[in-house]
Model the fold of this input.
Amino acid sequence: MNNPVSVQTMKDAIVAKDVYSKYVDKIMHFAVWVRAEHAEWFTEYGKEKYDVLVSLKENKKSRAQQKRLKDGWMAMLWDAPNNAVFHFEQFTAAKVVLYISRQANQTTGRALSREGYVTK
Done:
């Protein structure tokens, strides 16, 4: 391994900005489902921030607005160790797998390929 990652780096959850950005994209989609199906999984702080960010999403007509939306999510999730967004103890594997199983290909409506599920 050319660039080994230290245990402390893993504990600190330090990842490259582009990787973090992709994680945030997935979490944003997951959060929409959580709010609709399992709102109790959100902390009060998470619900409040989610509602503010959703209002930004409703008005996202420009790249600048889309960037503000993404930046808002990134900031909220970056601060999650200090201000929890979700009650993770309420998550169940069965319910999360249900979410994953519903991630059909948005173009064809068919289930994702095995490779597609790897990123979920």
Summary: Residues 16-118 form one domain. The radius of gyration is 16 Å. The chain has one domain: 16-118. The chain has a mean pLDDT of 81.
